[in-house]
Amino acid sequence: MALHFLSDAATSARPGDDVVLEGAEAHHAASVRRLRVDEAVTVGDGRGVWLTGRSAAVSPREVTVRVDARREEPAPSPRVILVQALAKGDRDELAVQAATELGVDAIVPWQAERSVSRWDGKADKGIARWTTIVREAAKQAHRAWVPEVRSLARTADLVALAGQTRMLLLEPSAEAPLSAVDLADDTRDVVFVVGPEGGIAAAEFAALEDAGAVRVRLGTTVLRTSTAGAAALAVVSVALGRW
Q: Which of 14, 21, 26 lies closest to 50, judged by CA?
């Protein structure tokens, strides 16, 4: 499979044009991926543009790709959004990486009541970190659309989101399995909410359910916060015909 890279220059490029990769992207291509001249590559802008071509010149500072073909992939609809509670260690980062590889369209970091990890005073740094993880995972997965990492959310923000979407709260004790939820005829975005290590608090459940969210479970086991979102994405990808 051809190596895949991201560049804003892809947005306006057409067959016959040269797209130049610079900075970290060029270094990664030349020094890490060991790209050589005349290798097949793909380049995207992360917003639906997909270019195929071959490397014309390669150095750690600059890589030139000659474009052979261009296509534009429409944005997925409905979108699948993961609300991931902040978690200790790297568990939330593992969740973000896996969700990106599996096709999530947007990610919302949530500072839940029981989140051990806190982004108080450092939300910008946390969002930047997640954005980097998402970008690299999207490249690895050869995605035409790079998921958006949204601002840090509080429960009140999720309540507002629940009123506009199909929000599903992943809870091991829920009666209804996720596989029983009919998503076929609903055009609203699908939102999964994954709680922190200690689970979603009772007050949070009450607020979100009052706004229209529904509890669902994944099988009969209890999954970690790092794996629940990925498992849910696999189920819904089948239900929506993506897989």
A: 14
Phi first, then psi: give them for residue 117, nearest 5 degrees.
-75, 140
Decide: pTM greater than 0.85. Answer: yes
> Is 106 in contact with 148 (CB distance < 8 Å)?
yes
pLDDT band at 85 (very low <50, low <70, confident <90, very high): very high
State both tokens at 15: 């067959």
**Digit-coded pLDDT (tens) for 145-197:** 999 999 999 999 999 999 999 999 999 999 999 999 998 788 999 999 999 98
List beta partners, residue 215: 169
Within a 10 A sphere around the Cβ of 94, how many other Cβ atoms? 18
Nearest to 218 by CA among 202, 201, 238, 233: 233
Give me the phi and psi of 179, to 5 degrees please. Answer: -65, -15
Sheet holding 148-149, edge to edge: 148-149, 106-110, 80-85, 190-194, 166-170, 214-216
Q: How far apart are CA 31 and CA 39, in angstroms?
A: 15
Cβ–Cβ < 8 Å for 239, 199: no
Q: Which uninterrupted H or E stretch holds 34?
A: none
